[in-house]
Amino acid sequence: GYSFIAGGHLFQSNLAGWVLKISTSNGDVSWSKYYDFNNGPSEFTSIFPAPGNKLCLIGYDDINPRDMSLLYLLDTSGACLSTRYFRFNTTSGQSYGGALAPNGDIIFAKQFYRTPASTSTLTLSRVHPANGIIYSRDFTQIYLLPRIYQTSIGADNSIFVIGNKSHTDGRFLPFLGRFSPGGTLGCAPVTNP
Asked: How many CB atoms lie within 10 A of CB 150?
């Protein structure tokens, strides 16, 4: 079998979205490919299987402000089948942690900074690969959230977002958010102790 790794690679003075296909038996590289966004820099933060033997990549453009989320669908040979981008009303941010819902929708969480307060918070988005955004919701009550690492789907189709939350004394605490399939917050956020 094969595994896939995604990220960003500094290539000719630009950050390019990068995907690597490797053999799981011996670690040999099958292929390595770069992807840009409209001839500009990009980076991927999440890769996971999609229906029809496809790969879904979530990422962002690397042009300040980082307010554009990218969604790529590839076949397993690395050919780009489709791209979508989503612009948000934020000053900067990055998309992290994508997950595939049982019906084929793609769910991803985005950490962002909103002006004028410039506090980081969370946007949760649900996208149909062909039809676009189903919802995109800001959760300003979830603040001081510098990193989102993963989004996953529970057995009851609840959405979980995992990351770090800043403590007022500078420490980072684990963060786990639970949302309904419709994107509503499952519980009140706990304030910093």
From this structure: 15
Q: What is the C-alpha to C-alpha distance for residues 88 and 115, in angstroms, rounded to an integer?
A: 13
Verdict on whether the full-model pTM lies above 0.85: no
Per-residue pLDDT of the chain in tens (193 residues, 90 and over written 9): 999 999 888 767 777 889 999 999 999 999 999 887 766 678 888 899 988 899 999 887 766 555 567 888 999 999 999 888 776 655 456 657 789 999 989 998 877 655 555 566 778 889 888 888 898 888 776 666 667 778 899 999 999 988 877 777 777 778 888 899 999 887 655 544 4
